Amino acid sequence: MKKPYTVITPPRLIELPEYGEIIKHIDLIWMLAIREIKSKHAQTFLSGLWTVLIPLLQLFFQVIIYATLLGNIAKLKSEGIPYPVFILSGALIWNFFTRSIYAVTSSISYFQSIWVKIYAPNMVFILAYIVPVVIEFAIMLIVGILTVGFMGYVPGVRIVLIPVLVAYVVLWVIAIGLWTSALQLKSREVSILLPYILQVWFYCTPVIYSTTVLPEKFAPIINLNPMTDVIEIMRWILLGKEIELSAPYVLLHIALLLMLFIPGMVINSRIEKIRHDIV
User: Fold this and answer.
1) Taking the alpha carbons of 178, 167, 135, 119 in that order, is the dihedral positive or negative?
2) pLDDT reading at 43 higher than 60
């Protein structure tokens, strides 16, 4: 009987991850995701309910505050849609995006106690932290659909496109998270700067305002933002709002996504081999 052996090869200049390793760790991804959901509010009175209540409360206060300030006081136009509903439709997907970014950024360093004992690709820990946020979003989405339905906006068959839109957002989250999580291992300043970066991004995205209220000179800046299309498509799905997607900008967004995603995967593959030395 032959003894098992390991072949050690020198690292290549460009090294892509082995996707088979990620598939083999599906059970670990799910286990870590469930562990994260249970442990987040384990010793509180409402326990796991806080996992849903906190994002819902955040969404509720966003709608109330911005609808009051911009809709009632500033009298900004919302394309004939009630301002609370208009903000709700955009804030749903935006909050999912930002919460996922925060989760992914801290995922690898958070699970340090696990990967110092067993080997698993960085992508396993990234996906394990995205799963709870997706579950939160699914619950908030149900609440959001019921709310806009109560206000007279029934999504209809367009609702089947939401998983496609969520998958596209998750790709952006992973593409950004591959960089931020790697940088977080090296420097904790990333988690300090990230809220400010996302806050600026928030105001550059038409979550709380319509693109029609902006001067024409700002149109290229808004259109360069990949989340602009996401917000507009979400409003089209939930509210039936008319949208005009620019093919050149859509192709540019896909190109930017690939420019972040592919080098990020390469860098993370190399970091996997030296992460014990970095921390």
Assistant:
1) negative
2) no
- Burial, 127: exposed, middle or buried (Cβ in 10 Å; 0-12, 13-18, 19+)? buried
Sequence letter at residue 123: M
In 41-156, which residue ranges form alpha helices assigned H by DSSP? 49-66, 83-110, 112-115, 122-150
Does residue 95 sit in helix, strand or coil? helix
Q: What is the DSSP secondary-structure string of 195-212?
A: HHHHHHHHHTTTTSS-GG
One-letter amino acid of 200: V
C-alpha–C-alpha distance, residues 277 and 257, integer Å: 30
Q: How many residues does the chain have?
A: 279
Amino acid at the residue 278: I
Mind listing the pLDDT tens digit for each residue in 139-167? 889 888 888 888 888 888 889 999 999 99
Buried b (16+ CB within 10 A) or exposed e, 52-61: beebeeebbe
pLDDT band at 233 (very low <50, low <70, confident <90, very high): very high
